[in-house]
Queue: 3 jobs
Job 1
Amino acid sequence: MKIVSISRLISALLLALLAIGVIGTLLPAFNYLPVLGYTEFSWQPWINLFQAPELYSSLMLTLFSGITATIIALFVALATLSCCYDTRWMRYLQASLSPVLAIPHAAMAIGLLFLLSPSGWVIRLLSPEVTGFDRPPNWLTVQDPYALSLVLALVIKETPYLLFVLLASARQLPVKASIQLGQTLGYSRLTIWRKLLLPLLYPMIRLPIFVVLAFSLTVIDLAIIIGPNTPSTLAVTLFRWFQDADLTLRLQASAGSILLIMIIAICCWCWQQVYLLAHYFSRASYSDGQRRTKADSYLKLGSYLYLLIMAVAALALLVLPLWAFAKRWRFPDALPAKWSLDKFNASTDLLTQLSTTTLLIAFSVAFIALIISVLILEHKRLFSGKVFWFDRFIYIPILLPQVGFLFGLQIALIWSHLNGSLAGVILLHTLYCLPYVYLTLQGPYLKFQQAYYTQALALTQRPLYAFVQVKLAMLKGPLLSAAALAVAVSIAQYLPTLVAGEGRINTLTTEAVALAASGERKQASLMALLQAFMPLLVFIMAHFIAKHWTSWRLAISYRASDKNNISAK
Amino acid sequence: MLNDCVPRTFLARINSATTRLQQICCYLLAILVSFIMHTTAAHADWQQTLTAAKGQSVYFNAWGGGDNINQYIQWVAKQVDQQYGITLKHVKLADTADAVSRLIAEKSAGRDDDGSIDLMWINGENFRALKDQKLIYGPFSQNLPNYRYVDESARQSLTLDFGTAVEGMESPWGMSQVVFIYDTQTLSAPPTSMLELLEYAQQNPGRITYPEPPQYLGTTFLKQALYELIADPSVLSEPVENIDFELLSKPLWDYLDQLHPVTWRSGDVFPASAEAMIRLLDDQEIDISLSFDVSSASVQIEQGNLADTVRSYVFDKGTISNTHFVAIPYNSASKAASQVVANFLLSPQAQVKKQTPTVWGDLTVLSHYRLSAQQQQQFAQLPRGIATLSLEQLGQSIPEPDTSWVAALESAWRARYAK
C-alpha cells in the first residue's frame, strides 16, 4: 500500500522533528552545549535556574494566570452552552465564534492594551466629564503585576475555542431528548444541563481543556504585549534568557523549559484529580431530586459574562482602526483630533510585502497540512478499529511549550540550511497547524460514506479521478474550513516565525508584536488591523466558496457544453 | 611593519656611502619609496576589495524599531547599489542580542563560511560577547579609506567601546548621547540632576519613570544615576571584578529605593522602551522622557506623536554618551562587500545625510578638522529640528562605564526590583 508507507514516512518525520526539538532542549539543560565549550554533563544549569531571583515570582505568575484563565474560560463556555444551546441565541452564538477564533490573539491583545490602559479609550471616553481626569490616572490596569489583564486576554481568546469544541461535542449527545424528558419531570433547563449533560460532555473535551491549559501556561506573544514585566511570566522570562547577550543563560533557559514541560504535565494531572474529586462529591447531588438549584443562576451569570467578554473584544477591535488612521489623538479626547492616511501611505510597500509573505506562508501551510491530513486519515480509515498511534503524538506540538522546543530545533534548522528561509518557516508553521487541521478534518472525513467512492471507482475505473472528483469534492466543506483554520493559525504564529525566520522572514504578526512592545501605537494598530482582517476574510471566503462551488462549476461546464453543442451543430 | 623594514634594508646597502648629505638623501628617498609603496599597496588592496565586493549581497542586521533609521538604511542600500553594485538587505532586529545568539547557533552547527549575517549594528556588551567568542572578522576598520576622517583621540568611545578595546574589530558609525525630553506646557523648569529628579518625583508622584533594565536605555539611566551619585566616578572605568560592587553601587540602590515608590505605577511596572516613554509623555502619564537619540523629540513632533511645545535638554553635569559601530561576523560570505558598506557608512556623504535632523539626526563620528572646507560647510549648514540641541548645548559627555557594569547593574536591579 503506497498510502500507508507515505503516511508512515510522514509520521516518522514529524516524530523525528519533535525528538530533535526535545533533545536540543534536554542536552543544554544538563550542561551539554559544545559550541560554548560545555561538554560535561552536570546539574549546574538547574542550580543556576533555581538561584535566579525572578524564578519563583515568575512561576507563581505563570501558574496563577494559566490556571485562572483556564477555569474562567471553561466556566463561561459551559455556562454559555447550557444557556444558549437550542435557543434563539444559538444562531448569534455560532456567528460570534468564527470571527473571534480567526482573529490572531496578538491583534486582540494590542486592541485590549489601547482600550484598557489608563490613557486608553475607555478612560478617554469617560474623561473629563465623568471621571474628572485631565491627565490619565496613575492606575495599573494593563500589564498589572498580578497578570489580571493577561488573564482577561487569555479568557477572551480561549472561551470561544472551548465553546466551539463544546458545540461540536454536544451534537453527539441526545441533548434535545434529554431536555424534553427532564422538563416533563419538572427539572429546569439549566439543572438538566448541570446534572445530566455537562458530566457527559466533560470527558469529551478533556484534551482541548489541556490544550488551553498548556497554551495559557506558556503563551509568549500575549504575555509580551499585555502581561506584567517585573517579573514576567516564566515563558517570557525564559524567552528573554534565550535571547540574552550572555550566552551561558541559554543553559539555565533550557533547564527552565524542561521545568515548564513538567509544570504542564503536573497541572494537567492535578486538574484531572481535582475533577475526579469534584465529580465524586457532586455525584450525590445529581440524583438528589432537586428540580432547580442556586447553581442555575451562576450559569446564567456565566453566560452574561460571555456577553461582556464579547463586548470588550469588539471594542478592542474597534480601537485599532482609530489609532491606525489617527494623526494626533491626545488624552482626553474621545476621538482623534486629526486623521491622516500618512502612516498607511508611508508604509504601503512594507504592508504589501508583509501581507504577501504572511499569506504565502499561510496558504502553503494550509495546503501542505491538508495533504498530510488526508493521507494520514486515509491510512487511518484502512486501520479502523485499532489504536492509531499518530493520534497520540499529533497533540504533542501544541502541548509542548514553544519557548524551549523551538530553540532546541534551531540548531537542526541551521544545520539543514533551512534557517532564515521561507521553507523553514513553513515547516515550523506546519508543525503547529497540522494538529488543528487533522483534528477538525478527522470527524467528517472518517464519516464519509465510502460507498460513493466505490461506486465512482466502479463506473470510471480511475482511482485518482474518483477520489478527487467524488470523495474530496463531497468533502469540500470540511476541507475548506480546515484550510481556513490552518490559515488563521499560521497567521497568528509568533515564536515559530521568529525562530525559523530569524528576522529575515517577517510577517504581520512578528512586526505587530515588536511594535506593540515598543509602544508605537499607530503603526502597531495598522499591523494588527491587517493581521485581524486577513484570517476573517479567509474564513468568509471558505464559507462562501464551499456554498457556491457546485453551482459555479455547473454553470461553467454547462456553458462549455452549450458551446460544444453549438459548434457541433 | 612595511614602514619600518624598508628604510633599514636600504640603510644596510648604502652603509659604504660616505658623505652625510648622501646619507640624508637616501634616508629621505627610502621614506618616500616606502610611503608610496605603502599607499599604493593599500590602494591596490582596496581596489581588490571593491572588485570582490561587486555583485555580493550584504545582509545588514540592524535594530529595526525606528522608522526614520530604517528609511536611512534604505537610502544607503540604494547608494551602495549604484556606486558599488552591492545588494544591501536590511534584516530588522527587535534586539541586537538576537543576532548574537544566531551567530552562536551557526557556529555550533558548523556553518563557518556562509553565515546568515554579513554586517551588524553593534556596541557594548554584544561587541564584547562576539569579540571574546572570536565570532567577528577583523581587524579591518582602520584600513578603510574613509577611516582617515576619524580622529581616534577625539573621543574615548571610538577606541574603548564600553571599556572593551575596539582594536579595529568594528567600524564606527555614529554617536549617541542621552537627552531628556519634556513638554514646556506642563513643565517650566525641568530637573537637571538626579537629585532634583527625585525631588520632583516626590512632589509629583507618578510622573517620573525610566525604561525597564535590561532594555539598554533603562540600563543607561542606571549608569547616569550611578555616575552622579557615586563618590569617585573614575572607578566606573574599572571592570566590576576589580572593585567592591556591592559597596560602590549602594548609593544607587538607596536612591532607587527612594525614587520607586513615587514613580509611574509606583515602580510596579516600567515602560519597555524609548518609544513607550515617548507615548507616555504624549499621553501626559509622565512628565519627562529620555532618549539616546538626540533628534528623537523633533522626529516625534514631526510624526504627530508629540506636541510641538516639547523640547529636549541635558543634565548639568553632562549625560552618558557612546559610539555605535558596525561589525562583520567571522562567517560572512560577503566580507569584501561588508567592508565597502562599512566604508560607505563612514563617508562624509553618508554621515552628513545621517546627521540631517529630518533623516535621522544621529551625530557624526568624523572629526571636523579632518574634513575639507566644503565638507565642513555641509555639516555646519545642517538645519536643526525645533527640539534638537546643538553640539554646544549637548555639553559635556560622560563615557560609558566598563561593559562588565552592564551585566552587574542589570542583574542587581532585577534581583531587587523584578521579584
Note: The first helix of chain B runs from residue 2 to 13.
Job 2
Amino acid sequence: MEPWWISLIKAAIIVNLVMVTFAYLTWLERKGLGRLQNRYGPNRAGPFGLLQPIADLVKLVRKEAFAPSSAIVIPYILAPIVSMFTALAAFSVIPWGSGWRIYHWNVTGEVVDVPISLLLVFALGSIGIYGFIVGGWASESKFSLLGSMRTCAQLVSYEVSLALSVLGVVILGRSLSLVDIVHRQGTTLPFVVPQFVGMLVFFFAGIAETSRAPFDLPEAEQELVAGYHTEYSGMRWGLFQTAEYINLITLSGLMVTLFFSGWHGPWNLGPLWFVLKLLGVLFGFIWLRATLPRLRYDQLMKFGWKVLLPVATANAVITALVVVAT
Amino acid sequence: MSTLKGFGVTFKQILKGPVTTQYPEERRPLYPRFRGRHRLWTHANGLEKCVGCSLCAAACPADCIRVVAAENTPDNRVSAGERYARIYEINMSRCIFCGYCELACPFDAITLGNEYEISEYNRDDQIYTKDMLLAEPVKKIPIEDPAIFDTPIPFYKSDS
C-alpha cells in the first residue's frame, strides 16, 4: 500500500495530463476534421496551429461570463463545476501502467484502485448529468430548459445500454475492478475478441453518452439553439465544453481498458500503449463525426431502446451462458 | 454496408490533401475583367481625363460618387476639357462595383481596377479622394492570362 501523498502526486499529474490531452484533443479534432473534409484546420497560431488551444483558452478566460438576471445563481454557477469535477474524477480509476518501484515505494499505475471502479465510473457519469440538467434549469430560459430535457432524455436512455454492454466484460474478467480486468486481459486475448458485439454497443452508447456526432442532439449547432448551455458564456461555457471532452477521453480510456487490454502490448511499453490506443479510439470518434449525418430525435430513441438495449442484453445473457457452460 | 462505405470515402480525403487556398500568402489570379477599386486616368501629357461632367455620379445606383466641378483657367489647367473635377470622391463603403460609372464616362476617365483589398479600420478612410484615385495602386494583384478567357484588356486600361 502506498502512502496517501503518492496518490495525491499521481492525481495532480493525471489531472494535468488529462487537461493537456483535452486541450490538444480539440486541436486534433479540428485538424483531423479539416483533413477529412479537404481543409487544413487551424494553422495560424504557431507551427501547425499548435498554439490554438492556448489562444482559445486565453480568449475564453478573458471573455465576460455574464449570467441572465433571472438565473438561480448558486446552481447556475455550480452546474459547470459539477460536470467538470465528475468528468475529471472518473479518470482516476483508469489504470494506465503496470506500476513501478520507485525508491522503496510501490507506485501503482492508477491513482486509486477501487474494487468497484467500473461502477464508480458510471456513478460519476450519472452525477455529471446533473450538471447538464441543473445548468439548463437554473438558466431560467425556455431554450435552456428544453435543451437540458433533450440532453437528459438522451443520456439517461443510453446509459442503460452502456452499463449493460460492459456486463460481458465483467463476467469474463470476473471482477468490477478495472485493474483486475486489465490484468486478466494480459494473460488472455483482449476482450474485444470474445466481446466484439459488446464493444460495438459500448462504442455507440458511448458516442451518445458524450453527445457527439451522429448523436449530438443536445447541441446540434447547425439546427437548434445550443441546448443546456445556451445562457452560458466565457469560461463557464468553457467548463461545460471541457467536461464534455474529458468525458470523451474518459470513455475512450474505459474502452481501451475494457476491450483493448489497456496498457498491455508487445515490448512492454506500458503507458505508451495506453496513450496510443487512446489516440486510436479518439481518432475513431473524430472519423465518425466527419462521416455520419446527425440522427433525428425519434431515430435516436428508437436506436437506443430497440436496437442497442436488446443487443446489449442478449450479449450479456449469451456471455453468461457460455461462461457457465464451459 | 453503405454506411461503412462512407468511412472509406471520408478517409480517402486525407490522402487527397487539403484544397484550401491560404489566402493572404497565396492569391488566386483574378479574372481580367474583375471589377475592383476604381481609378482615375490622366492623359500622357499629365492632364486629367475627367472633365467634371458628373455623369458617373448620375449613373451611380448607390449614389457613392461626389463630383464638384470647376472651370479650367489658362494658368490653372487641370483637365483637357473646359472644366475639371475640383472634388472627386468615391465612398467605397457604399460602392457596389457595378461598373456603371465606367460605362457612363464619355472620356474613359474612370475605370474599375483589380484591387479588392480595400477594408479599413475606419469608415472615413473608405472615402477615396481624387489624389488617391489618380495614384498608381500600391498593391499588385495577379491577373489571369487574358488569352485564356479570350478577353482583350480594354485599351484605356493599357494605355492612358
Note: The longest strand of chain B covers residues 83-91.
Job 3
Amino acid sequence: MKTYLNPLFLFIYLLCGLAASQAATFDLGRVFDAASDLVSAGTGLSEKEEIQVGREIAGRTLGAAPLVNDAALQSYVNRVGRWLALQSERPDLPWHFGVIDTASINAFAAPGGYVLMTRGLYEILDNEAQLAGVLAHEIGHVIKRHHVTVMQKSAAISAGAKLAQRDDRSQLLNNMIGSGAEIFARGLDKSAEFEADAVGVVIAARAGYSPYGLVEVLHKLAARGGDDAALSLLFKTHPQPGERLAQLGEALTPRMARLPAGTEPEIRSISAEAGPARAATPLPANGAKALQEEPAPAARPAQKGIGVDPGQILRGIFGR
Amino acid sequence: MSGSGHYNHAQSSQGLNSMKGLLPKMRDVVPWTLLLMAMMSPVAAQQVTVERDSELRAEARLDAKVVATLKQGVRGEVTAKNGAWLNIKTAEAAGWLFSFNVRFASAQQASGSSSVSGLGRLFGPRQRVNVTSTIGIRGLEEEDLRQARFDAGQLRLLDQYAASRADAESGAQGSGLSAARVDYLDAGSP
C-alpha cells in the first residue's frame, strides 16, 4: 500500500515545495495525520529540528546506561524496529533502536525516531511479537509526536511564548533539550500512553506479528506489581498496566474478529559474552538522599526555572 | 560498662560469622530449588483472577456461545491461549475468556515458580528463568537520568547498528513475516 502511494507523496511534496515555500520543511507524516492529529500539526517543529532534539536526548540517555555489548542483538533489534516503522506514516525517519544495559524494566522514545529499551525489559520477553509490541508502542509516541509536543510546550512557557516564534529557533531547541534525559523520568498524559498502545497494536499487526504481543507484556507488568524495584520508574511515570489493558481491550473489541492472527517468531537471546546485566548503577553522592526526598509527582515543584513540569515528556512504553 | 559493650560486640560478631557460613550454602541451593520448581510445576499452573464480570465462551470468538458468566474475583487456571483469548478452568466452569478481563497472579501468589517463567510458558517458548530482574535490584532511576551526560561514543555505536529499509525487509522475510493492511483502531484514545 505504501509503495502504491509513493508517487502521490512525491506529487504532494513537489506541490508543497512550489506553492507553500514558506513551510520550512514538509513532513510526509502529516499527509496522513493532518485531519486526525491536530497535536502534531501544532508543534511547528521541523522534522530536522525534531531529530536534532531527539538525538541529544538519546545521547544523554546512553550516558546514563550504555548499549548492551552485543552487536548482533543490537542489529537484530534494529531490523525488527525498522520493519515496524516501515508500516507507519513516518517510515523514513532516521530510526534508531537500542537495548541499554540496565536491569530496570522500561522503554523510551525520543523525538525523531530514537527508541531505547532496557535489558531488564528485553529479558522478560518470550517471543518477537512481544518485542514488536514494545517497539511499536514507542514508534507510536514518535509518529504522534507526543514527547516533542510536551517538551516544546514546557520550553515555550518557561522562556516566554516569544521563543516559539521562528526568529529564535535555536534558543527554543536548547530550552527543549534543557532537561535532557530527565524527560524520561516524567510522564506523558494518560491519553498519550493509551494512544501509543492502540497505535502499537496496529503497527505490530501490520508487520505480520500477533497483535497481542504488547497485551502479553502488559500482563507481565501487571503480574509483577508495584513492589518490584525493577519497575519503580516505569510505574511512577505510567498508568497502571491493568488500566492500560482495560483501555486496550475496549478499543480492540470491535475489531477483534477482523485482526489478522499474525505470527510469534522466536526472539534472539542476549549473547552470554555480553556479560551480566548491570544490576546497579552507582548512586550519585547525594543520590540516595535525593531519591528519598522525592516529592509525590503531583506535588513536584517546578525545577530549573522551567514553568511547567520540565520534562513532561518521555514516556516509556508503559507510561502515563 | 565497657565490659558489657565488649560482650555485645563479641556476640554480634559471632552471629555474623555463622551467617557468613550459611550464605554460600544458600547461594548454591537457591538456583537448584528454582530450577526444580520450574521443572515440576505443570504447564497449566498459571493462576488468574477475573477482574470484572465476564462471559466465558465455548470458543475463542466474541460471538461464540456463552457457557458461563464469571464474577469479578473468581480464580481460575489458564490452560491455553489463542490470540486475545485464554482458556480458563475454574471450580465450576471451563471455556474461553477475553484476556483483558483477567489479572495474572503475581510472583508471590503463584505457588513456587516465578511469574516470569510461568507467563513465559504460557505466552511463548522461552524457558529460561530470569534472574536479573528480581526484586531488590536498583536500576535506572530518575536521578541517573537527571545527571546523565551526553555520550558521543555510544551514540556513534547506536548509528552503526541502524538498519536500512533493505535490512529490515530481509530480516522480516527471514522470520516469515509479511505486511498486512490493518486500519487504526477507532477508539485509540479515550
Note: Chain B touches chain A through 77 residues (CB under 8 Å).
